[in-house]
Predict the structure.
Amino acid sequence: MAQLTQEQIDAINNYSENIETLKDTVTSIRQMPGVYCAGKGNPGFLSLIREIYDNAIDQVVDITSPADFITVYYNEITLEVEISDNGKGFPFNDMIRMVTKLHTSKNYSKKKGDYSSGAHGHGLKVVNALSTSCIVSSYRYDGSAMQLELEEGYVKGKGPHKIDNKEKRQGSCVRFIPSTEVLGEITLSWHTVYKLIKDILSLTPIGSKVHFKAIDINNVTHVEDIVNKDGIITKLIDTVETPLCKPIIFGYDNGDFKLDLAFTYDIGNGDNISSTESVTAFCNMCPTIAGEHITGTIDGISKWFSDYMNKIYLINQKAKDKLKVIPADIKSGLNIMISGFCLEPVFVGQAKEQLSVPEMATFAKEVVIKGLDNWSKANPQDLAKLSKFFKEIAELRSKQDAGKAKMIEKYTKNPLNNLPAKYKKPVAKDNIELIIVEGDSALGTVHEVRAENQGIMPIRGKIINPFKCSRETFFNNEEVQGITQIIFGQQYRRGLTVNDAKVSKIIFLADKRHCL
């Protein structure tokens, strides 16, 4: 056994002095807000709004609840949020523990098909703990009503007190103002809140309504009665520029898992078809950026259409002209809306942005394959139209593959400095400026007149569009990797900010035809 130093002995003897226990739930949540919501600032605040809105949505989709209407109010100036519904309301005797006690929820005992956005009873408690003011009201059809007021996460006074309910309304209302002391600066636009409200509403039964009211930073009021008229295809209607076919819609529910989806292909203006899929996904009504409901769905679409193209549509090709469709071809131009549900959802983090339920991938893939089997029989014309599209995409890719090796060679990193081979390094070492030009001809011209502190990086035509692809696809692009390496001295990773940049300025020099 190694001899202990005096410093190690002192650390062992004094170890207990460094161990702290936070006094209560509010303190623990405020100490680590990122553990309980999507972080600080605007993302964290939006996560709090979503938590309360999801609770109201749960009432709308609950067949035992009378809820069919939600109101949402947001004030950009005061940051006040108020969300109400005409659902079951809060049981009067349970209001304090439902707002303040973690692991208090109706979702621990479930029967098949009893899906909900919450899983462990944290949502409202986190909202309260991260608010300077939180007021919860509960109304009953018999004319009774109670209100609970809290400040900085703690109950004011003696607890719930009676309030008027002469109209005998039924349901609940939550009003809160986030703590900027804990969450930091908040500049959340009402447009962002509106988009969240509308997207989630599209997952509810047709006819569901939200009365939305917002006051913007200029004190202008915006009011709209949002009605779910088109269901899950609402997002496609709003965002798809030029659909190749009418939306493909289907779903299935086995009680443990449920999947609904709608997708089509967007050909844009013909010149800018996305090389990858555009996905909007939710799981248990929570916006998600990753998870098995997404991977399973996309795998199912890719497999079904790839198999059809290669085993049926292209089966009679001549050997010398043999064309093979790959999953990447199927994903080109794909725009999809996914709504998944798990009876026992497991999310990575309280922000619920990533589902972690492996069984969901298998379920989703099977649902998609069976759904496309049925769709293809009922829609032969749309199938033929998509098949022609996939064939043309595959032909274009095949032609590009021949030149891809040369292109990659041009942008292969120099093993001595890990920078793109075509990057012209600056002579100076300080106050570096990066000039991005289009093509080798522009590189030569700029190279003749550049300053000693200016480096030059040529790109080829239009670079990959970050609004038309996933984060992973964008940062895996050869040119993007090269530019990222120049700017930051390393490949992209989450957490990089402008403060990590190794260059002081970036200058874009476009061709004249791209400036008009």
About this structure: The chain has a mean pLDDT of 85. The longest helix spans residues 380-411.
